[in-house]
Structure formats: C-alpha cells, structure tokens
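Hello forum,

I keep getting stuck at the same step: I have a sequence, I want structure tokens, and every attempt I make locally crashes halfway through. Rather than fight my setup again tonight, could one of you with a working pipeline run this one for me? It's a single chain of 119 residues.
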Amino acid sequence: MFQLIKLAITVTAGGAATVVSENYNGLLYGLKYVPGTLDTGADLTISSTQSECDITILTITNAGTSEVEWYPRLNSCGATGAANTDYLVLPPVIGALKVVVAQGGISMSGTLYGILLVD
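Reply #2:
Ran it on my machine without issues. Output:
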C-alpha cells in the first residue's frame, strides 16, 4: 500500500528551513518537489531521521523553479561493504521524513511530497 506524505516548506528570512513529518515505517518510492515561490538556487537535503541518526536519501543543489519528480535508490552492498551498483534498493524511512532547505529565498514557500510504500 502506498501513502502520501506532504511537507509544506516555508523558509525564514535567511532562506533556510527544516521540516519534519510525523513518524512512518516504510520504503520511499518517490518524491515530488513543487517549488512554489522558493528560489531557483534552493538546496534540499532529504533524509529519514530518528533520534539516533539521519539516513540521507537525496541531496539536490539548485533545485530550480519547476516541478520535478525523483525516484531515489540506494546501492546495496556485499559482505565486504563494497557498493553493488547492479542491485539498487528503496531508501528506508524509519521515523520521520525530513527536508532541510538552504538558499531558498526570503520568506518563500514550496512543498515536497513523498510516496511511501508501507505494509
């Protein structure tokens, strides 16, 4: 079953924002960025976060002012820890989905949607 997560972003006068969703447990299938009034140079870091650690899912620099969709995948690894780029996995979301925005303009807004695969 899929679940839609909506993160409404409003940056401060300094152009920064951190938005955290409620807690989820699933796999992130895709993301849709709707920039609204956010500046072209907005940088986004999207992660799964819990109290102990963040797992970075995607980092976007200069996101632009057009709607865009991403389908992030992570490299799997073998027993030695070497990345296996032939076998990609969906990023886990254990806890909250978090987006950190830098250089988003002055008091501007946008939206990030996450499509989460849950049981």
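The radius of gyration is 15 Å. If your local run keeps crashing, start a new thread with the error log.
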